[in-house]
Specification:
This protein has helices at 12-22, 65-82, 104-115, 154-171, 184-190, 202-206, 218-226, 230-241, 247-257, 297-311, and strands at residues 29-38, 41-53, 56-62, 121-128, 135-142, 145-151, 198-199, 213-214, 262-272, 278-284, 291-295. By secondary structure, the chain is an alpha+beta fold. It has three domains: 12-90, 2-Layer Sandwich (Double Stranded RNA Binding Domain), CATH 3.30.160; 101-171, Double Stranded RNA Binding Domain (2-Layer Sandwich), CATH 3.30.160.20; 220-312, no CATH class. Strands 1-2-3 form a three-stranded antiparallel sheet. A three-stranded antiparallel sheet has the order 4-5-6. Strand 4 (121-128) and strand 5 (135-142) form a beta hairpin. Helix 8 (230-241) packs antiparallel against helix 9 (247-257). It is elongated.
């Protein structure tokens, strides 16, 4: 059976529908099977949908019911091709990336809103190839994290870059970032109104008013540290006040004194800056609220040290 070129203007749902019509088979049957909280992003949900056609079935997942439906159709098309029942080769789902209803740009922005990251920036960094077969490369940048995507259209390249960024962000057990750290009195003020709406998506952010706030309450993080053993907090305070210690040493000694599990990496191979340099990362593993801080050199250590000073209300210590 000759392989059919994938039409970039068609979605997996359309391709599967046309395949059934061509083979005079019943239309695909889609069934929504459930939803659950995404373990990598607690403020988001993951939906699942199953599809049956031509005697086979597959299950897809996505951040919306429509996304999960597309994913289910895509997986079933792959299965049918492997079984010799279809001449549509979709072994690489990047063929459909530009036309899937899933908006990767909005998805990246939603994650940034939920985790208090900077909004992503996009740039077309390369275009090459002849006019009949161009290739574009887009860059998605959030702070110092950069991910790139390549496609035959600008839209597809931008979506591909966002898709790579989503994989990176979801791999981070992050609910904290440098931008979320506040002194205790400011956190308490934010916590006064229990009924305030919490913004979870980019659409809500751009339509919000000043009474709305982002993410998980900062005061809850302070309470976690306040409930630690007093002797451990006192030991951490002595380390913070020790003028003989360098800031980078304090960044490891303070969490050890508090009895917290953490991981600090210099030149983390999983993250890189705009210039291509590997970043330093600090991950707090044992708290009720995970913390992930990244940066370069002294700026990185200052961020980690400032995080613990604010969480422990050590603002009076230089």
């Amino acid at each position: 059976m000759a392989t059919k070129a994938v039409l970039s203007t068609k979605t997996p749902i359309t391709e599967l529908q046309e395949l059934c019509v061509a083979q005079k088979a019943p239309h695909p049957l889609y069934t929504f099977t459930g939803e659950e909280v995404d373990s990598a992003a607690p403020n988001s949900k993951v939906f699942t949908t199953s599809v049956s056609a031509l005697g086979f079935s597959s299950t897809g997942i996505g951040r919306s019911k429509k996304d999960s439906k597309h994913d289910a159709a895509l997986k079933l098309l792959k299965l049918l091709f492997q079984r010799g029942l279809s001449d549509i080769d979709v072994d690489n789902d990047e063929h459909f990336l530009a036309v899937l209803s899933s908006d990767k740009v909005t998805e990246v922005r939603d994650i940034c809103v939920q985790r208090h990251f900077e909004m992503p920036e996009f740039e077309c960094v390369r275009s090459s190839g002849p006019s009949h077969a161009p290739e574009f490369e887009y860059e998605c940048r959030i702070g110092q994290i950069v991910r790139r995507g390549v496609h035959k259209t600008k839209k597809g390249a931008k979506q591909a870059a966002c898709n790579e960024m989503i994989k990176t962000l979801q791999a981070m057990p992050v609910e904290d970032s440098e931008m979320q750290v506040l002194p205790l009195h400011q956190a308490a003020e934010m916590d006064l109104n229990e009924d305030e709406h919490i913004i979870r998506t980019y659409r809500e952010l751009i339509n919000s008013d000043i009474k709305k706030k982002l993410g998980v309450k900062i005061a809850d993080r302070h309470r976690f540290f306040e409930e630690l053993d007093d002797t451990k907090i006192a030991a951490a305070r002595r380390i913070a006040m020790d003028e003989m210690l360098q800031v980078d040493d304090k960044c490891t000694l303070i969490p050890k004194a508090l009895g917290l599990k953490f991981e600090m990496k210099r030149d983390n191979s999983d993250l890189q800056s705009i210039e291509g340099r590997k970043l330093y990362t600090f991950e707090l593993l044992s708290s009720e609220y995970d913390c992930f801080i990244f940066g370069k050199g002294e700026q990185f250590y200052d961020s980690v040290y400032r995080y613990f000073k604010n969480m422990l209300n050590f603002d009076y210590i230089d």
